[in-house]
Multidrug-efflux transporter (Butyricimonas faecihominis), 450 residues
Amino acid sequence: MRINSLYYKQNINIAFPIMLSLAGQAIVQMADNIMVGQLGAPELAAVSLAGAIIMNTMVVGMGIATGLTPLVGQAHALDDKERIAGFFQNSLLLNTTVSLVLTLFLFMLMPYLSMMGQPVEVVELCKGYYILTSFSVIPFILFMTFKQYMEGIGNTKVAMVITISCNLMNIFLNYIFIYGKFGAPFLGVAGAGLATLISRLMMPVAFFLYIHRSQIYSPVFRFFQFSNTSRRKIKQLLQVGYPIAGQMVVEFLSLSLITVMMGWLGTIALAANQIVMSMISLTFMISSGIAGASTILVSHEFGRGNIGKMRRYAHASLRLAVIFMAGAAVIYAFFGTPIASIFTPDPEVIKVARNLFFVVAVFEIFDGLQVTALGALRGITDVQRPMIYALVSYLFVAVPLAYIAGILLDFGAPGLLSGFCGGLMFAATLFIRRFNKSVRNIRQQRVTNL
């Protein structure tokens, strides 16, 4: 029991700053929703529409950036500083290019917003927010690169401090620009986009300054040279990063498609869905903190060849995810109405959101299990097969079930979200089985090599 407690303690020590960092990102989106929601249901629906499209695009860059963590983690376990710096330098180059491409894609997509079957007033309201938030993708992906590098070497606290600080700035700027305070013009929905852009610009700047001025971490820049630009390392980063991006894209895409179907049901359903998605994002980001700790700890033990410890760290993470998400499920089941009331005074929106929270309470544990199992798989750089599992679970299970339950069987918004629940259950089962199988294979390979 004493040994087991050590694994839980180390998981929590690493996971807690990641939780706060990721939860901070969700809280900013939530703050946008709460503050914009006071303007009305159409404004809240506008943030929902733009946010779904931008987030679903941005996760490509986030996934590719995340591929840096296990590679740095495995090199860190061997104390190979030159290799660590090489991955970091090439990741900065790769992710800068990716972020520029994603931003260009978002602007190319903008003329097609009106063709997604959404209310005309919602499309018009979202344009300013959409433009400004699209620009913020570039600095945010750069921040993610710094964050994943530091987490790979086991430091999760710096990203937490920077994220919380910039998020507080974002909320304050929201108040100024959305409502036109302190002499600023009233910008409404667009004001939330401007606040997001400014705060995200500060995030990579703050990270660079911290590393540059730190005696512990600044030596990494000494290895940065033009000659160290390596196609081989970029290829390695992509081999790990693009399947992670694929996993994230298909999950967010399934949610986005469900959001689009919510729009078919009207502005009320779309606004209620955005409230629920804000809360789901919060709990998902926190469970992703546990998954991040799993990636770090598993990658370190994998690099050292400690298969037993690797497995025990992963299983401790899974149990922690179950405990946390079970608590979240209870809160959503019993306090859905008060939570929705924070976002909007509209009684119709609150009523629909309350019903959606009952569905969320059912799938929270499966959501925590699937993301944590994915984190463990990333630690051993097993990412190709999980990408296929994600594709099947979210696009070929979740979306069709959502359409059947919500549209064909006319169960409405709760039916749409129930489909996503089915996809999460399927994904959690596949990912956990895959990790256990991979561990057995690694152990057999080690025995054979001996």
Q: What stands out?
A: The mean pLDDT is 87.
